[in-house]
Design brief:
Layout lengths: L7 E5 L7 H9 L4 E5 L5 H14 L4 E5 L5 E2 L7 E3 L4 E6 H7 L5 E4 L4 H4 L5 E4 L4 E9 L2 E8 L1 E3 L4 E3 L12 H12 L4 E4 L5 H11 L5 E6 L2 H5 L1 H4 L5 E5 H7 L5 H14 L4 E4 L14 H13 L3 E4 L1 H4 L4 H16 L15 H17 L3 E5 L4 H7 L7 E5 L2 H6 L6 E5 L7 H14 L8 E6 L11 E6 H5 L2
Parallel strand pairs: 1-2, 1-17, 2-3, 3-13, 6-7, 13-14, 14-15, 15-16, 16-17, 18-19, 18-21, 19-20
Antiparallel strand pairs: 4-12, 5-11, 6-10, 8-9, 8-12, 9-10, 21-22
Helix pairs in contact: 1-13, 11-13
Length: 474
């Protein structure tokens, strides 16, 4: 029987992984969440891929990743050679089209950059491979010196670190894609370039009262600076290291990664580490040793999930990349001890204290696993953040929650349609459910967390230790 890591694996679906055979192999190798990048997909493609995933497995969660507002160079088809010390003029594509101006101009897809920046601002092209320094701003023309030259190809990215840009947080495409995700019961929406709680509010407004959960992608200085507020209004966080590594100094990224992971764990919100984790596997059957260390360190830092992007969407070995990521995480988890964190989650204080106590109980009583009977999922989040070495089995009555738990480290969810109101009967049914899937033996000792049967209760959690056979009556 294949053994899967407790750390969850998110894989991006694309041309390399559209066909059913590959998708099935990816799921069997350990894919927990299928991410669809709306930057490269229209509603027809989103619908087709979502249906394929749902048809193969009702357990795999669907995540729609919004395009966000990316600035790109535009207006030319042939490569431009930019030489150190030369000057160029950055201008909006609208003005470029109007005036039909020449070769020294670099048009971009953002019309008001000249209003947002000042002299000596750095403009980075092509993910920072080309660096411009602003010498002067004349009307809507930005005159720049080429500090670090190179070959500029069409449609490459434009980044302006440490600068607040006045573009709207949501384009019309983002609005349409978010509405599509909600209407089609996607489990997660990951919103690009979340800079503040105002950005979160705009996404929440479109999502309405849906059960779809919101992941904030943190990828620039503003998002990092406002993170302590953002985390309170979202359901989880993605550390999007690609753009982050351009927007802030690249040597700062691993520090920010560790800080964000700990802050997410302290409040019980799932956290994802993303971008270039096994990048060389786009072309090669095995990763580099540095990439293996990167995945391992993310697991050691305590993330809930690791994510594959181009490796599985356009790479040559999508299923193999997932298998290798699973094997790396599994090896690391086998030597890690639980990592207790402090802080209050969205569960009650009583539940948090109860879950904290499980660390000592598990060590002293040789517990095989924890069965959580939950209607909200908050108890599982409170337990999961401590990264226990034993599994957490949540039993609930929502199929969508089963999928959404695919993002919580160490949690495996089971669906029980008709949940008894009586607490003892509910416990028996829940343990029978987990046992029926081959997760438990009759002589296993387990911890069980549930609510009581007391009517009109406001807060309550019961923790009991039992033997499986005593619960199911065999």
């Amino acid at each position: 029987m294949e053994q899967f890591c407790k750390t969850k694996i998110i894989a991006t679906i694309g041309p390399s992984s559209w066909d059913e055979i590959t998708l099935r192999e990816m799921i069997s190798n350990g894919m927990d969440v299928a991410r669809i990048n709306a930057s490269f997909a229209d509603s027809e493609e989103l619908s087709r891929v979502a249906k394929s995933i749902r048809d193969i497995s009702p357990r795999v969660a669907l995540m729609l990743d919004t395009k966000g507002y990316k600035i790109r160079v535009t207006g030319f088809e042939d490569e431009k050679v930019l030489k150190n010390g030369d000057t160029v003029i950055v201008i909006s594509e609208e003005k470029f089209s109007e005036n039909n101006i020449g070769e020294k101009y670099i048009p971009i897809t953002y019309s008001s950059l000249h209003k947002d920046i000042s002299r000596n601002t750095k403009i980075l092209l092509d993910d920072g491979n080309i660096v411009l320094n602003v010498l002067d701003i004349k009307d809507d023309e930005i005159h720049c010196e080429i500090v670090q030259g190179g070959i500029l190809k069409p449609k490459k990215t434009v980044n302006i670190p440490n600068t607040h840009l006045a573009f709207p947080s949501l384009s019309q495409k983002d609005r349409d894609d978010i509405k599509f995700a909600v209407d089609n019961n996607f489990d997660y929406v990951s919103a690009s370039y979340v800079r503040s709680i105002n950005d979160v509010a705009k996404v929440r407004e479109i999502m309405g009262k849906s059960e779809t959960k919101l992941i904030a992608k943190i990828e620039d200085r503003e998002g990092i600076d406002n993170f302590d507020q953002i985390i309170n209004f979202v359901d989880g966080v993605m550390i999007a290291r690609g753009d982050m590594g351009v927007e802030i100094s690249f040597e700062e990224v691993p520090i920010v990664q560790k800080q964000i992971i700990y802050k997410c764990r302290s409040v019980g919100k799932p956290v994802i580490v993303a971008t270039q984790m096994l990048e060389s596997m786009r072309e090669n059957i095995i990763p580099t040793r540095a990439e293996v260390s990167d995945v391992a360190n993310a697991v050691m830092d305590g993330c809930d999930a690791v994510m594959l992007s181009a490796e599985t969407s356009t790479g040559k070995y999508p299923a193999e990349a997932i298998k290798i990521m699973n094997s790396i995480a599994l090896k690391v988890e086998n030597v890690l001890k639980p990592q207790k964190v402090e802080g209050l989650t969205e569960a009650s204080m009583e539940t948090d204290v109860l879950c904290n106590s499980l660390l000592d109980i598990v060590d002293n009583l040789s517990i095989k696993g924890i069965v959580v009977i939950s209607q909200s999922g908050k108890t599982s989040q409170s337990i999961s953040r401590h990264r226990l070495s034993i599994p957490i089995w949540e039993v609930g009555n929502s199929i969508q929650r089963v999928r959404q738990n695919s993002l919580l480290r160490g949690v495996k969810a089971f669906f029980l349609k008709d949940f008894p109101k009586d607490r003892d009967e509910a416990v028996q049914r829940a343990v029978e459910c987990v046992y029926s899937y081959g997760e438990l033996d009759l002589n296993d000792k387990i911890a069980i967390i549930s609510g009581s049967s007391i009517e009109n209760r406001s807060k309550n959690s019961i923790l009991e230790i039992s033997i499986v056979r005593d619960v199911i009556g065999s």
